[in-house]
């Protein structure tokens, strides 16, 4: 018979409780480490915006910053610290990982008080550079569209840094601007009462180059600064009662989200990338989603905008979750949002709770005109347009729930599959923390060979509010919460694996009396068997239980003995009984006689009620195997009980040895007090060893067999508790003192480890116990319960030892080879007629345990995801997008999103024109263009439309001459000459620029396309550019339709982004492509090293052949092979010139799959590689041939 094995892993971990004020920034906090000396200030997950392979695998990296200025970068899966960083001893104000990870994926920028920013290599802990500024830095935000731009929020204003680089510190001190608080202006007082339009009219200029007056408050109440990732050059400022949207091109407020007078103030805001939306956290714990109203600005290019519509960015409230009950100790702390899908948010509450809210979409049954500003479902799913009958998962991500900003006008919607949708928040997860201390902890009985099958590692935690929390330490999750008592729980004792006793004592009343409550709880049913046994009596000191009997010790009252089985009082000691200071039951008992009595009683009962012999045998076996079933009616009626023993000490230190059987208590022996010991406070008994602790910190070790004792002074004061470790022959014990704890070896009589408050740690230990034979449990006054190794040193939690109640999809926890093999398996299965989710059915010669872990990950996928993956109509392109979301791979997500969009455009053009092109995609008006969050990558027509709407809004909001001039310059570049002339003529005669603006207006009006005038203007423009007037020269070139020349000049002078912008809004498709291709060459240069962005630009141009070449040269073999495998690119195979490239890509991908051990996939792609994969194919198929011959 094979032995029965069980694997119960109890790893070191921390059960966390309420948060402190310093934890407010640590919103990504994960139970990871026990660096218990300080509070965490900030926690940030690393970005995944890089290509993943065996050398750069998927890994969970987390940076944590504490109150002492230490930054630790963690590998979450293994629970180990990759590096530690320390610059100063003050708290880190803010930190962020760099989002552009082409050069390095390990760069972390941190704000070190008071005014330093430091760039660190988070893999090695190396400081790359350090830069100081004039003002104290509070936080910062990276520009998501330009890695060289950074905004610092300081104590006086904002500093814009435009020369940020990983290679060297910024040379300049940045551009400093000042922001007056919205409440500092008397004209802003009507914001909450008069609506958004009037409120915005009141908020004129908030950004200026001049320092505000002394009486105005500057930025003191600004809670947050952040760039908008959904569109370039926009920023939000968060104030308690409003969110300001700033257009950084004109430094002007173009949108205000104001709260009504009775509304709940803001606490935090997270702007979205996929759609122009904002997740807002309010002070009552309510999370709201606000989405920008589409087409809020509509006007003809050369017409004056209609003054009737509200000329601003309007963010409509689309969904909100339920608020929490806010008290003095319970309030919302922070919020985080899913960075990949943006469809869920987690709320962290001060009491330690984490609430997971997921966004769900529902199709509205109303007509399209039912609401003033409806949201529509997108026409596509995972990049491909789908019909009503096709499988899709709308709640996969925010951009799959609602259509983008470029959706066509309402009257055109009838020709397309678009439906109005509504959004709602759904609470899908709740994690509870520990309440505030005090704590009383007790671990359930230890694991033995007899309770192997039903054992659960449960820890009971008594709290100050009278509830008992039962935690499963294998998962770290709350198993049950029981509201048992009405006052503080003082002690807990387990009576079995599924039941425990708890007692609680209230605070003394006016007469000095307390209320004592004693409860016996059965966990499976939640029933209580005792209830308020003592009301207004003298204080109970403790309870000590062993199997059948319970000893209840009072402060000034004789001892009581209770029968746990019947919940009845057996004996109350006489008044002259000694005052008990410490008591402990003997670990030995008359087990054999008890078994005989129980068996006889059960047999007698069974003969009366059981007819068959087989049932009788089952009754006998249950009696023998389950000793805890002593509560049967026959046993109780016959008063069957075992003889048990206990010892206690009195106030003089004398030890009494008593025997209990039934309601009989006999005094068996007495041991005189040890003269070296003070008043005994606690006793522990195991085997032949008895250990006593006293008020002076002395430990007395008694060897009962040898009848010798040894006293050890610890000099730590009152010994509050002693507990022996479980396990036969294990003589380790833990002792609790007022200032800490110690672990001793009672056999060798020597200390194993020590922990002292104020020296090793900054918290005070409230209670101790043993978790297993080698791990201890400490409850502390900082609100945490820690499971530690016997050394009691800080240790890390290992996620691979986590036993989850249900499987969770997280391929990051697999070893790198397995994680990448799983991804390849899910992406493409060309060897199968239909897709499979069984890893055991493919040729993958990997370790069985690894394959089992991979299969567990496959099984953990939701049914909706499985349905999509098994759908034969779900294309490879859609699978690539879906897997990039499932893996949280930002780099893949951006690549496949842009690729899917423009590949589908190419397919549509082929259908319409029956012609192919591999160079430039012709522009067409699309129902669902690529959203503006992709900026330069969008279609030219949509990009131009967005820029016109933007300049119209800027024009409406202009309030100074500088703003008017910027608007006129922008209109000239956009070709809107008539409106630009009107703005130029508005310059007042007193303005020093009046003459120049008047002449410019005349020039713009009278310019002709004749040869001489064009030559003259071009000559003047060239001279102006040569003499440092680049912007003016570019304007002149645009006036004479020489925008292509203007772009070349801009690129020559390093204005690459500006040149790309101008090309998108002024040039035709071919000229624009030429400009952008030069930009691609610049992005690929070693000095810039933004090849990932260059590939996205090439995708937007339709240069798919060059995309494949670049992917191969960058060794992105998987992405290149899958890109070539797309059916939409089948025409590339018809070009003989590309066969060598295609074969090389497939051969290299086959080799990478072989490295992963994914043999089935490797053979498939090697067979596609022609001559380049022939040798590899022979090598892979050789073992099969050998097996066949054999």
UniProtKB/TrEMBL annotation:
Ranges of residues in domain WDR11 first beta-propeller: 44-292
PROSITE patterns per UniProt: WD_REPEATS_1
Entry keyword Membrane: no
Domain WDR11 second beta-propeller: 457-791
SUPFAM superfamilies assigned: WD40 repeat-like
InterPro entries: Beta-prop_WDR11_1st, Beta-prop_WDR11_2nd, TPR_WDR11, WD40/YVTN_repeat-like_dom_sf, WD40_repeat_CS, WD40_repeat_dom_sf, WD40_rpt, WDR11
Domain WDR11 TPR: 949-1124
A GO CC term assigned to this protein in UniProt: nucleus
Compartment(s) where it occurs, according to its Swiss-Prot or TrEMBL record: Cytoplasm, Cytoskeleton, Cilium axoneme; Cytoplasm, Cytoskeleton, Cilium basal body; Cytoplasmic vesicle; Golgi apparatus, trans-Golgi network
Keywords tagged on the record: Cell projection, Cytoplasm, Cytoplasmic vesicle, Cytoskeleton, Golgi apparatus, Nucleus, Phosphoprotein, Repeat, WD repeat
GO terms classed as biological process: animal organ development; cilium assembly
Alphabetical list of Pfam families matching this protein: Beta-prop_WDR11_1st (PF23751), Beta-prop_WDR11_2nd (PF23752), TPR_WDR11 (PF23753)
SMART domains for the chain: WD40
The protein's name: WD repeat-containing protein 11
Origin organism lineage: Eukaryota, Metazoa, Chordata, Craniata, Vertebrata
